[in-house]
């Protein structure tokens, strides 16, 4: 009897993950007759590792792009939500979830300030708390976090990129001094390496290359470096994580582009994609996808179907500064801060799709839609 309860609970565990205060019409009720310490038992690493391994071997016929035993999610935040309320789309079960989470460590933190810097990668979240001049890296599944102080208190955060690799994570931050003018191109780059738990500083004219519009779009990891798409005049630049040098241009860009965004295949860094509009006078007539080749050329992969292209350019009103992209489990997600849906491209099937609006969103939500990739990983160390 006890074993059957454990098996039933484990099945729920694999489907739902830990009890993160799930609410709404699809909420899960954990009505199991077990001891009080049962949940802490089944979330211990040996228990999950053992049963997930046996489950994987018994179902080897099914394939997944993620090694996690949990579902993968698209994570949505919005200014009209309470700062602890978020909406998730369960990609494995094609279902919406509502959860309540607390990502801050102090009551004095302003939700609007830290939420604007929230980024995710590899099952971890990173955000900035300007009140304490620090960054917070957290694993929501393992309920662990690390507070990382700024390398200097007299700095203003201009850009934050957070990437994870099989060996850990790297934080790339672009700082400026509060006394410097906003148009100043002199900024300091600091890179934090989780393997050594320390910052490295690189000085240079990075601001003029990254530009204001890149503060919302993260750099992407590829071939041992971070790649950025700059605003006009458009170019792709590489920041070498080893020596701190900024190299440009990378490859010959397509003609008549109106905006550019970069996406790489997660922490693997084996493929680099370019998403951009093609047109004239700042108006996109088509949206295309290119892949970076070994010969350092941008080869066209796909073009967005005409009807989908018309919808996308109409919802962003040709204000491409609001467009951002990210990778999620074999999907290239193209989002707009002013629109609640996600346009995504399935790389394996070479097909385009729309993820519709969440039913839990208020009817008059207008802008501020910020999506993240969330692939829970128990062993992702902070």
Automatic annotation (TrEMBL):
InterPro entries: Kelch-typ_b-propeller, SCF_F-box_component
Name listed for the protein in its UniProt record: F-box/kelch-repeat protein
Species: Stylosanthes scabra
